[in-house]
Amino acid sequence: MKDATHIAVLLDRSGSMESIKAETISGFNFFLNEQKHSGANASLTLVQFDTQATEVVHEAKPIQSVPELNANTYQPRGGTPLLDALGETIIRTGSTLEVIPEANRPDKVVFVIITDGQENSSHRFNKAQIKEMLEHQTNVYKWQFIYLGANQDAFAEAGSMGIAMGNAANFTPANMPAAFAVAAENVARFRRSNDVESLRYTNEQRQRMTKDEEAE
């Protein structure tokens, strides 16, 4: 469907997220509401992942119908099987979109990956496989991927998976709300413009996500 966007959010639910649970919930809800305000021409898939499960919370749900997260629907636990979650979601999203009549199929697809830890527990997919899958979806179907990582070298991690450096950014855990806010801005611009450059982080945005709150 022309000017329609499918947004897939992969949200780390590992135990290390417990210390920023409230910030993650409020950040996701801000992202969600910004997308709702940007128009009804979007659907959203939300996947929460940890070692206990890769849970599809919502699948291709009309954006206006997606409920906010709360302390009951987001409960950190376990480790970080990022590669498995990403591989499974790419395959599932492809299958979901494939059965939609072409006239109704979203013409833009963007994945938003948010994690505060590096991959540590995947078993089904390795980085080489994920990189091949991402590059295929990007080159053939023009899917877009953005990556936000805390407590790590997000550029190296994203690059090893085939995600463009401009679409990767570090954030400090205290700035989780800013990370979601920046992602919301960029995805909203991408939805309006269909310009992939809209998904690239600016220097000002990077500073917002890493600023030292105590220094202010």
The total beta strand count reads 6
CATH superfamily: von Willebrand factor, type A domain
Lateral arrangement of strands in the main beta sheet: 3-2-1-4-5-6
User: Oligomerization state of this entry?
Assistant: single chain
Along the chain, the helix and strand elements come as: EHEEHEHEHEHH
What is the CA-atom radius of gyration, in angstroms? 16 Å
Provide the CATH topology.
Rossmann fold
- Count of alpha and pi helical runs: 6
Helix content range: 25-40%
Overall form: globular
Domain count, please report it: 1
Chart the SSEs and their pairings.
Elements: E1 5-12, H1 21-37, E2 42-49, E3 54-62, H2 82-98, E4 108-115, H3 127-141, E5 144-150, H4 154-160, E6 168-171, H5 176-193, H6 203-210
Parallel strand pairs: 1-2, 1-4, 4-5, 5-6
Antiparallel strand pairs: 2-3
